Amino acid sequence: MEHRSSPGPAVRTASNEAVRKRPKQQRAAQACERCRFKKYKCDEQYPCSRCRKSKRECVYAGDYHQRESSRSASYIRELEDKVAALTSQLQIIQSQRDHPSDGVPTSMETASDPDINAILTPRSSERRAAYASSPSPVFNDVTSESLDEEISGVNEHTNSIEFYGNSSSAAFLGYLQNACRPQLKEYLHHGRAADSPSSLISTLHNPGFSLRKQTLLPRHQNFYFEQAHVFMEGYFENLNLLHPLIDKEDFSARVHDLWFGRDRTPEPSFLALYLSLLSLGALTRVWDESQLSGMTRFEWSRKLFSEAQMCLKELGFSNDLETVQCLYLMSKICQNELNPNLAYMYLGLAIRTCLSAGFNRETRDPKSQRSQSISKMWWGLYSLEIEMSFALGRPDTLGMDEYHNRILPERDDSEYAIVTWMVDFARIIRRVSVKVYHSKAPLQDKLQLSSKIERQLDAWLSGLPHKIRPDVLAERQSFTSLKDPKWARRQRLVLCVRYHNVKMLLFRPFLAHAARNPEHTSAELEAAVSKCLSSAEKTIDIIHDTYTMHTFFRCWWYNVTYVMFATAIILLRITTIGSSTETDRLVGHVHKAVEILAAMDESIVARRSIEIINHHLREIRASAADSVGNTHIHDQSYTTVPQTDPIEMLLPELRYGLGLPDYTFEAMAGLFDNLSDFPIMNEQGI
């Protein structure tokens, strides 16, 4: 057996000396998790020096309680100091709640105080942030009020649950109903569901715009050639001037190929677009005749809408421009049929289709005609999505703006420039939604934020091209505007109405707050209330004056929403102030609103809106007569509206929805499936 020779004494001595010369580093028994991960030297304190310096949470694996018992006295004193500081701050906040004073910092100031944050451990900072963000009276004096204005319930006609947030006109009508409830109690019968939100959601439902099952798509041999010219003109000379998202020349060229058989196998997506455009044109054109080829306005529109739906079913999911345009038009049809819930869902489908096709992203050839068409379509949908979502008190589905780098249409003097300006307008609306309606800031902070947003809104208005810039200060437009093209005049009109609508929405929460707390007022609050009322009155004046001169505006059925929102604001103010010198002027505007709605009596929603307004006027008049013995509010009857006993007119007993949907989410989700029993529109007229 071989034996290895051991190193000699000289070798061992050199090796031992090398070991003795190497500095011996003491190794920690166990480092904290962060030091272990970063391979730092840990001092085993709790927290360790490195975690304390970087303000990170210090975590040890293993026996935590053993380390906890070995903490130093200095660390315990440090914790005691932190507890004392936090206790002091809580006492200040409590004192502020019990005895509000200008000298005490607000909860928002306390939450952002860097000196306070510096003394908090990371975990306690998280707990404190969670506490600050919780809906508590300490941190939020307005949010709890806005929560009371939200409504959710089952539409009795669809058996579907619908939600309307605090920025929606439906929710504000619910608030108006609750605000007037003390005046209604004597009229209530036992067993009435006075507090049920479902009854309000079902109040102004449009039963003529309903869905039923149909298995076959009727094919017209010449694609409604005789009526198509009229309906196409009804669309391109009206709503397309406001939302110029579909090119008339390109569309007309493709339609001629369809009519004269040059396109033997038309694309299903274009056929769906064609039918939906005819439907919207039939719905919003001026009808000098009562019928066309034996059918009324609504019969034609709903028939064509049904066939467009069937084309979408046959098409399945398709990511082309024509499908997006069709879904956009379907949304506008539902909006003008006063079914905003269904409009919201169709618009959501259009947005999703754009995102899946990448229409929101820039291309290598942004100057091509098709790329420019997609740009107009995408940014038009972008602004409409924000507006419609806010109008219903719901979130939009756009995500962060960083996702969308498609180049905007140019800000020139053409009719297409409004697309880009409406994107700016929509972003202001989003600020109203986030900073006013969904913010937990105190009332005073919201007043300041609203004033800032108002300045941004006015700056946007001032920056509009001269041709489409509304003159919101003067009572009438200058005579030079008479030479402007039709598209400029109509864009200017609609921008003026939208401007005042957003101002109403911007300051409406302060009107509601003043109505709830009439004893707590201030100059700033009264100024906000005055701005809200002023825009409500101007909205009614503008629409009333336009209805007097132009018949086309009476066929834009979505005006019912603007008028009802403005009227609800005025009625709430009348309810709050009672009889005063201001009352006669306000009631005069309410009567104007009824005249506007009476001019649209083709719509059952408009007729029932008149009933609601007259009902509230009777209740206000009865309350004023009981308390004063006389009233400034004079009765006024309209032959188009049947007068009914107040008990029969109570809102909770009306069985029709607020222009809201009769199409369930499940049905919408199955829009493109292959089921043979696909539902289509009821062809019964209003």
UniProtKB/TrEMBL annotation:
Entry keyword Transcription regulation: yes
User: From which residue to which does the signal peptide run?
Assistant: none
The processes (GO biological process) annotated in the record are: DNA-templated transcription; positive regulation of transcription from RNA polymerase II promoter by galactose
Cellular component per GO, a single term: nucleus
Database matches in SMART domains: Fungal_trans, GAL4
CDD domains attached here? fungal_TF_MHR, GAL4
Which residues are in the Zn(2)-C6 fungal-type domain?
31-60
Region (Disordered) spans which residues?
1-27, 94-114
**One Pfam family of this protein, by short name?**
Zn_clus
- Keywords attached to this entry: DNA-binding, Metal-binding, Nucleus, Transcription, Transcription regulation
Query: Is Transport set as a keyword in this record?
Result: no
The GO terms this record gives for MF are: DNA-binding transcription factor activity, RNA polymerase II-specific; RNA polymerase II cis-regulatory region sequence-specific DNA binding; zinc ion binding
Looking up PANTHER family in the UniProt record yields: REGULATORY PROTEIN GAL4, ZN(II)2CYS6 TRANSCRIPTION FACTOR (EUROFUNG)
What is the name listed in the Swiss-Prot or TrEMBL entry for this protein? C6 transcription factor
Supply the source organism for this entry.
Byssochlamys spectabilis (Paecilomyces variotii)
